[in-house]
Structure formats: structure tokens, C-alpha cells
Amino acid sequence: MTDTVKRDVIDLSSPPSSGGSEPVPADEMTVGSVSAIPPEEIERITTEVVAALKTVFDPEIPVDIYELGLIYKVDLDDDYSLKIEMTLTAPGCPVAGEMPGWVKDAAETVEGVTRADVNLVFDPPWTPDRMTDEARLQLNML
To answer: Residue 69 in contact with residue 132, Cβ under 8 Å?
Structure first.
């Protein structure tokens, strides 16, 4: 059995200091060993995963989940599967049972992605500090 090497595609586990949640460029990722996926392919998938995640909206807030800061981390394995950690604005969110499925469906539209597994986490808890400036602007919070 071969172990797959995980590559962090997007790591947003702590609020951005600049007010924006930007994906980590492929050439700046810290990896324990070399991935079988070429860096330019990782960059393409990163860009497309972010675009796909931006199509998912919290029905109660007119901002996509990426800009809201609900996506904490996305790992890309050598078999092109994604492991996504996300949260909700509140644990009692009415779409808590549905939103992970929406995220999975969106991520699996990216060419080359074989599977997406979504894990809902509540640590660290979501706060408005996680929102990008674009989200704040859309919500008239700037």
C-alpha cells in the first residue's frame, strides 16, 4: 500500500492579518516531501477550487462561503482527491446538514479532482474577523 503525500492547497485556518483570504501559491507551500502533482497543476486546481467554492452561498447571507471565511483548509492528495475543512457561521445553522454536500458538489466540478471529502469543524469558531474585505463591503461592514 502506498502512502499519498498531502499538499496544502488552501490553508485559511487562522484569520488573515491583511483582511483577505488568499490561497497559498503553489510555489510557497510547505510540504514534507515532493508531490507527484506538478506545481502548475496544483496552481490550476487551487484557482479552480477557489472559483468553485465561490459558487456556494449561505442562504441567509448574500456572500459566498469562501469570502465569508467558512473554508479553513483544502488538502490535495496525489490521487487528486480533496479533503476540505469548513465551518458554519453558527453551529445551529439551518443548512448545517446540507452545506457540506454543496461544498463537495462544487469542489468535484473541478477538472481532475477525483473526490472531495468535506469535514465540518467548529474549532476555531467562526467570527466576522474571518471575512474578506470583499465580504465586508457586500455586507456594508466597511
So the answer is: yes
Whole-angstrom distance, CA of residue 24 vs CA of residue 13? 12
Residue 50, CB-side half-sphere exposure with 13 Å CA sphere? 16
SS3 (DSSP) at 27: helix
C-alpha closest to that of 10 among 78, 79, 86: 86
The C-alpha atoms of residue 138 and residue 65 are separated, in whole angstroms, by 13
Q: How far apart are CA 122 and CA 126, in angstroms?
A: 7
pLDDT in tens, 31-90: 445 678 899 999 999 999 999 999 999 888 889 999 999 999 999 999 999 999 999 998
Q: What global pTM score does this model have?
A: 0.79
